UniProtKB/TrEMBL annotation:
It comes from the Bacteria. One of its GO terms (cellular component) is cytoplasm. It comes from Zunongwangia profunda (strain DSM 18752 / CCTCC AB 206139 / SM-A87). 4-amino-2-methyl-5-(diphosphooxymethyl)pyrimidine binds at residues 38-42, 70, 109, 138. Binds 1 Mg(2+) ion per subunit. Pathway: Cofactor biosynthesis; thiamine diphosphate biosynthesis; thiamine phosphate from 4-amino-2-methyl-5-diphosphomethylpyrimidine and 4-methyl-5-(2-phosphoethyl)-thiazole: step 1/1. This is Thiamine-phosphate synthase.
Length: 215
């Protein structure tokens, strides 16, 4: 699949109880080879999220990684992040595009084919589709798709004339990559596995390698 804005095949989704923990977890995966960080902070005042985003921006610049801010378009704009990731309940994609401009990356969450088609219509740069399986990382999780759900959806999605990369999310482990890749996923977004990994370097390398096989 064509990757117009160089959408990485591995998105690390940050987690942590406070600013320090988010930044420590981000630093750890950057050192281990991650090249794409999605700063996902819930339950923190916007000012604090902005401070964290500015520091995450510096870290990502140091390791030549992309920084995508979850939910907060204004934070993404102010800290000059590479883009924003928007859920179904967040700022409208068209509105975000007006604020951020054409060169920034906008990703959108999807759980159904309808969501994917709407995102295409609105001009997102990638779609985060999931969950693959249950995960406690996200509250109010959408219905689990499983491999068969992805298969069915991607068969229909790939009949569209112009598509964008689809990134799988939700409870993903290294051993899932091969099957997801075969189904037609362009990448994976992972939080827990990498946050709690004893050897993130090894896991990141394995994931990048498994996607690199694809031509
Ligand atoms: N959206 C659907 S699942 C999820 C998000 C943000 C979190 C994925 O995290 P994990 O910990 O890799 O299951
Ligand atoms: Mg959101």
């Amino acid at each position: 699949m064509n990757l117009p804005k160089e959408i990485s095949c591995l998105h690390y989704i940050s987690q942590g109880k406070d600013r320090e923990e988010h930044l420590a977890n981000i630093t750890r995966v950057l050192k281990a080879g991650a090249n794409w960080i999605q700063l996902r902070i819930k339950e923190m005042p916007q000012k604090e999220i902005l401070k964290t985003a500015i520091l995450a921006r510096e870290l990502c610049a140091k390791y030549k990684a992309k920084l995508i801010v979850n939910d907060h378009v204004k934070v993404a704009k102010t800290c000059n992040a590479d883009g924003v990731h928007l859920g179904q309940e967040d700022t409208d994609v068209l509105e975000a595009r007006k604020i951020l401009g054409k060169d920034k990356i906008i990703g959108g969450t999807a759980n159904t084919l309808q969501h994917c088609l709407e995102h295409l219509e609105n001009g997102v740069d990638y779609i985060g589709l999931g969950p693959l399986r249950f995960t406690s990382t996200k509250k109010e999780l959408s219905p689990v798709l499983g491999f068969s759900g992805y298969q069915e959806l991607i068969e229909k999605y790939s009949q569209q004339e112009n598509t964008v990369p689809i990134i799988a999310i939700g409870g993903i482990k290294v051993n899932d990559i091969e099957e997801l890749r075969k189904i037609g996923l362009s990448g994976v977004a992972i939080s827990s596995l990498l946050t709690h990994s004893k050897d993130p370097k090894n896991e990141i390398q394995q994931i990048l390698d498994r996607f690199a096989v694809r031509v």
